[in-house]
Design a protein that fits this description.
The structure is a homodimer of 340-residue chains.
Chain A: H1 2-62, H2 68-87, H3 100-107, H4 117-151, H5 159-185, H6 192-209, H7 219-222, H8 224-259, H9 263-266, H10 271-304, H11 310-338
Helix pairs in contact in A: 1-2, 4-5, 4-8, 5-6, 6-11, 8-10, 10-11
The complex binds coenzyme A (2 copies).
């Protein structure tokens, strides 16, 4: 009896608490969403004021209505305000970049934008370390195949390990493309080309899977396409490792600055690593040249008729497109940076 | 002079506003995250109280310390409280399901949990309509291939369209697996098997891509594996359409109930569509039987030696595993439902 009464009371209390919790949760949600709305509104209007003032400044300066020294000072103040809006806590209330077809196709209408800056940085850090891990595999996997080919397999690659490798490539590039799209939604300024580049690489991996790996006799010649493909992949690993070293350092500078809350220095953010960029780029150009060369060799192989499959021709074309695009985008990046 | 002074003032104001915005955003973020923390705490402790009381109720009842009628009433009240916590606005403050390796592999550490119930329902609705669209293609694509094969291609499938189809399958299953993982994180009770099922389907699509489509002479025999595969895919389309009809109706019942805020009826949620389930299941069982049959035929083709590729054998095994798993999970679902 005692415990029966007791439990009745307890259940009643729990039901009461559930109702209270529901009410608090509902009011919390409506309160935060209206607060968010107003912050979003303020961030947007501030952003447009900054834009307006910046163009006003330019026109005043070009009509000689402003002392250059004052203009410089005002310019700098505007930049500082921009940094506060774009890199500070307010950034998550500015409208994000649209999600893009690729993400919607794979994930549906889910929001992948992190609202807190530290989470966004964590996502970026994880992306970098993911790339590091894959860059090592990028070197290891194809070089193992090529070494085993001459040591054990008598110059003739068996189909299965190569296909396993190609499936891994497909999986990898899909992951990279998804992650880069997510970074973009989270405010990264990554050039669209680097993402398209991974779409092309996905397509190439997919096509290479359907590419029949012929065996003896005379397989050294029949497999010359596959072999070039593997060599290109190794080179890709080298490019990735170098690039990662640079990007990681760039991110660390940024996190350090963010932590110190020295927003006013962010403007000169890349200053510390700009020197490295000028070292990295010549190597990248050489690798891009090699990429185009492998593409052209594949085209030659396909057209001269040693290997007549359409896959070889297709991969050749895609490699050449990738090389040209990579080159032109690297040059454009350098040009934008040297303008400051 | 005038406008110079004016712009100086305006820039000053903008800098001031940027600082204010940064402060409001920072305090908003810290305020909401501490409020969230406390709501999370309350939701968790309420959840555990409910659990505790439920087991207390059971033990009291089994020791005959409680009138059955009172026990029923209390039980129902507890269920109502559970519904409020699990299906109401408070639900987003209960800890979500872990993100799982598949999502982390493809997306990195990004959070894909929607905090609002209406967004979660929208995600689910979109998933259903995505499935609808793909189910139609599932019927259309392989049947076109099979029809063209006998009408135009003289009983001999050309490699390219089949590979295009297989690539589409791979892409599709990857999308479904990603979306289902996201639904799971957002509180869906989907059985893990249905997700594993799509991992297996992804693997099968990948393997089938490496499967060489042999041409003349005698291709009807050499292609018997591919043909069985296409037939299975059509059947999959039928299963998907039927299942979608049922799932859609289930979701609509749920949304309608949610909108009417009649939490207390949610408990009998599936009552309206339970009848349909008993109609759907026999058809599903037949399809699952056909799936196993196709798998066994593939195994036979591979073992008797008409087609000696490992891919045929592999696809056969996977199909049989899928059929057995689908069957046993459908039966388990029915058993769980008939217990109420
Ligand atoms: C040239 C290069 C070093 C410039 O890097 P950078 O200084 O970071 O360039 P940007 O300042 O324009 O970067 C803007 C953003 O894009 C990102 N980004 C730049 N290049 C990228 C790439 N190739 N892949 C992924 N992200 C990249 C940066 O991390 C940065 O992100 P953030 O806004 O979140 O900080 C870099 O683009 C690169 O390595 N390109 C060559 C790649 C290549 O050719 N590979 C294949 C060789 S065969
Ligand atoms: C048997 C079946 C109809 C039961 O569906 P159900 O009544 O929704 O099952 P449950 O109540 O266990 O569902 C729990 C959750 O899992 C989801 N779910 C169930 N089966 C699913 C499936 N096969 N795929 C995706 N999601 C599924 C439901 O939508 C529900 O989601 P929610 O919690 O977000 O509302 C369904 O599982 C099914 O169609 N299975 C057969 C599939 C099959 O065999 N296909 C191949 C044939 S060859």
């Amino acid at each position: 009896e005692e415990s029966a009464k007791n439990i009745e009371e307890q259940v009643g209390r729990v039901v009461e608490q559930a109702k209270e919790l529901q009410d608090s949760a509902a009011s919390f949600i409506s309160k935060t969403s209206s607060d968010e709305q107003s912050l979003r509104h303020r961030a947007l209007s501030l952003d447009s004021s900054i834009r307006r003032l910046r163009s006003l400044l330019h026109s005043l300066l070009s009509h000689n209505l402003l002392q250059p020294k004052l203009a410089d000072k005002l310019q700098e103040e505007l930049e500082r305000a921009t940094c506060v809006v774009v890199d500070g806590d307010a950034a998550s209330f500015l409208p994000g970049k649209a999600h893009g077809g690729f993400l919607r196709m794979f994930l549906g209408p889910i929001n992948v934008r992190a609202s807190r800056k530290d989470v966004q940085l964590k996502v970026k850090e994880e992306y970098n370390s993911y790339r590091d891990r894959t860059a090592l595999l990028f070197l290891f996997f194809p070089s193992t195949l090529l070494i085993l080919r001459s040591w054990i397999w008598d110059g003739c690659l068996p189909a299965f390990p190569v296909q396993l490798y190609q499936a891994w490539l497909l999986f990898l590039y899909t992951g990279l493309a998804l992650r880069e799209n997510i970074l973009r939604v989270n405010g990264s300024d990554i050039r669209p080309w680097w993402i398209y580049h991974h779409y092309l690489a996905m397509l190439m991996a997919l096509v290479s899977l359907t590419w029949e790996i012929k065996g003896q006799p005379n397989c050294a010649q029949k497999q010359s396409g596959v072999q070039l493909f593997l060599q290109w992949a190794m080179m890709q690993g080298v490019a990735m490792l170098l690039q990662n070293r640079y990007q990681r350092q760039r991110l660390y500078t940024r996190i350090a600055l963010g932590k110190a809350k020295r927003m006013d220095v962010v403007w000169g953010e890349t200053a510390g690593v700009d020197g490295q960029l000028w070292l990295l780029c010549p190597i990248l150009f050489i690798l891009q040249g090699f990429e185009a060369y492998v593409g052209l060799l594949l085209l030659k192989t396909a057209l001269v008729g040693v290997v007549s499959e359409w896959q070889v021709f297709f991969c050749g074309i895609v490699l050449v497109i990738m090389a040209v695009g990579n080159f032109s985008n690297t040059v454009q990046t350098l040009m934008v940076k040297s303008r400051f």
